Amino acid sequence: MHARFLQPDIFKRAADVLLQHVHRGAGAVTNTFTLVLTVASQETDGFRRFLRSAKHFNYTIKVLGGGETWEGGDYMSPPGGGQKVRLLKSALEDIQEENKVILFVDSYDVIFSSGPKELLKKFQQAKHRVVFSAETLIWPDRHLEDKHPHVREGKRFLGAGGFIGYAPNLKKMVSDWSGADSDSDQLYFTKIYINPEKRKSINITLDSKCRLFQNLHGALDEVVLKFEDGRVRARNVLYDTLPVIIHGNGPTKLQINYLGNYIPNLWTFETGCTICNENLRPLSGLQVGLTEYPGVVIGIFIQQPTPFVTVFFERLLNLKYPKNRIQLFIYNQVKYYVQIQNYDSELIDMCRDNIDCEYFFSIDVDVVLKNEDTLRILIELNKPFIAPMMTKPGRLWTNFWGALSADGYYARSEDYVDIVQGHRVGLWNVPYVSHIFLIKADALRTDLKDPDLFESATLDPDMAFCSKVRNKGVFMFVTNMHTYGRVLSTENYQTNHLHNDLWQMFENPVEWEERYIHENYSKVLKDAFIETPCPDVYWFPVFTDVACKHLIEEMEHFGQWSGGGNDNRIQGGYENVPTIDIHMNQIGYEKEWHKFLLDYVAPVTEQMYPGYYTRAQFDLAFVVRYKPDEQPALRPHHDASTFTINIALNQVGIDYQGGGCRFLRYNCSIKAPRRGWALMHPGRLTHYHEGLPTVEGVRYIVVSFVDP
After folding, report:
1. Is 670 exposed, middle or buried (0-12, 13-18, 19+ CB in 10 A)?
2. Could you tell me which of 189, 140, 136, 181 has the C-alpha nearest to residue 160?
3. 71-82 confidence digits (pLDDT tens)
4. C-alpha span between 78 and 162 (Å, rounded)
5. Do residues 574 and 562 lie in contact, with contact meaning Cβ atoms separated by under 8 Å?
6. pTM confidence score
7. Cα separation, 4 vs 9, whole angstroms
8. Is the separation of the CB atoms in 582 and 560 below 8 Å?
9. Which terminus of the chain faces fewer neighbouring Cβ atoms within 10 Å, N or C?
10. What is the rounded average pLDDT of the residues 426-443?
11. Which helix (H) or strand (E) holds 133?
12. Contacts for 359 with CB less than 8 Å, ≥ 6 apart
C-alpha cells in the first residue's frame, strides 16, 4: 500500500455496487456468515479485482480504512500492518450478534475462489472458534519458531493475511491491541497463537492443509489451476485441497496476478473470456470533429536504426481516430534519421501536464501497427494500462512476458504459448510489456506520478518502468482479442545504403513483401493473373512502385555505371552484347536477389513451364539504363540463360518515350512495358530479341539471366 489520502466515497461507491448483488443468493449461510471485513485505503486494480471476485460469489463486504492515510507499511518494507488491527478492533465493537462469523482478509492481493457456503462449511469442520491461514515460512521473528505448536501434517506458522472466526472470539483476540499503526499485525497475532493459554481461551487453530486459505509465499510449487466443468479454481497438490481464498502474500504478487487471470471463472475453456466486455467505454456514437473523443498524446520512440520508418508513419496516419484529438511527440535518439523533435524519455509529461489529455499512447517505431482500430479498441477496453499483443512472424516472441525469473528477467508462464497462438483469447494481467501501450492520464497523475519511472541503476528503461508500475499496484493488461500487428527485427539493420529497407528480405520478410511486392502478385499463381504478349513470354506483376523507385535511386546513388564495352566485372572481361548497367553484386544485393528469384520468380516459372524446376541460379543480375544520348537500344541477341527475367522499373509515356522489347522470331513487340511487371522468356535458341530505342527520357529495367 502507498500513503495517499483518498475520499472514503470511492469505497462506498464500490461497496454499494457490490452490495446490490451480494445480498441475493446468499442462501442458508446468511443467518450465520454475513460479513467479510477488509482494509483498503486506495481503490487499486487489486482492490477492484478483490471486489469482483466477492461479487461473483455473493459475499457481503465491509471496507475499513477508506479515507485514511495508510501508515501500515507494505510487503517490501519492515513489518507493519498494525493499522489493520486498530480498524478491525473498532469495527468489531459495533457487532453484537454472538453467532456472527467474520472473515477478515487483505484485499489488494486476495481472490475468492469459492463461495461463502463452502467457506462456512470448512470453517465449521475445523471445530475451532477462530481459524488463521497457515504458512510454510515464519515471519517476522524467526526466533519464535520453536514456540509454535507442531502439527501432525501441514503448515505450522500463522499467517495474518486471512482469518475467520466468531465475532466474540475475534473481539477478545484484539481487545489488548494498543500498538502503533506501523507495528506488526503478524507478530501481534503470532504471540497470541504461541501462548498456550490465549490460544486455548480464544480457541484458535491454523488451516494447516490450506482448505480455507492458500498463502502463496513459500508455496508456489503447491498451487495449480484446476479447470473442471466450466469452472476454474486453485488446487493445492501437496494436500489435495481446494482453498476458498487465495492470498498473494509477500513477494508473490506476480503469481496472484497470474491466478487472477482465471479465478474466479474470468477465463475458462468453455466460456473463454468472461470479463472482456465488462466496464467498457464505448466510442461509437461520438461525433468526430468535436471534443467528445478522449484527448490522446501519442509518444513515438526511435531508439535505434529501424527499417520501414516511412511505413510506420503512414500506418499511424491511417489510425481511425479523430486527428484533432491527437497530439504527436517524437523522441529520436538516432542520428541516422532527420530529427523531427528531440525530447527526453519523459514524453509522458506531455500528457501529465496537458489538461485535455486523457490517455498516453506509447509506440516504439519498430511496431508494425496493422489494425487501424487499435487505439479505439484499447480505449474502449477502459483499463488504466492496456497493451495490444504484438508478435514476430514465425516465432513465439511477443511484446509481453507471462512471468519473471527469480532475477527479474524473462520467464515463460504456463499459458504463454496458448495466448500467443490464440488458443486462449482475452485480457491478461502480465508483469512486463514493451513497444506499445496505452495508459490513462489519471494513472500518470496519481499512482505513476514519479518523474523517474524509466530510471534504474541496474535495469534497462523498459524493465525499470514495468517494475515501478507493478510496485505501484497498477495492473498491466495485454489483450489478444484482435490481431493488432507485429514488431520488426532491428538487430542486424545496416544503414550504409540509400534505401536500406531493400536489404530486409531475411530479417523482416513479411514487411519487405508488403513494401516491395506488387499487391496483385498473389493472384498470379492463385488466379492465373498473367498475360502472354508473345509466344512463351509471360508477363506478370511483381514489384510495387516503391520497389522500382528504390532500385533506381539505389543504383543512381551508387553511380558506377559501366561504359557499355568490355567489362572487367565479368570473367574474361568480354560481354557479347554489353549494356550500361550496375550489377547486383556491386551493391551487395546478390543474396537478396537470389532469395527474390527463389520466392517470387521460381514458382511462376514452374507453373508456366511444366516439368522445369529451377534453383534460381544466376551469374548476371543487373539494372540497365537506356538514354537517347548514352545507349538508347540493344541489338538483337540471345541471353546466356535458360530463362530471363526483365522487370520494368519506370513508366513509358511519363519517364521516357519509346523503348520496349521485340522478339524477332515471332515478330512480336512489347512497346508499353508496365512498371513493376516482369517479362519472363526463354534465353537461348528460340527467343532472339532486341531492345527497342528509347527516344526521350531515361528508361530503367532490371534483368536477370537465370540458370545459365
Report:
1. buried
2. 189
3. 877 755 667 899
4. 19
5. no
6. 0.90
7. 15
8. yes
9. C
10. 98
11. strand 130-135
12. 294, 295, 296, 297, 351, 379, 438, 439, 440, 441
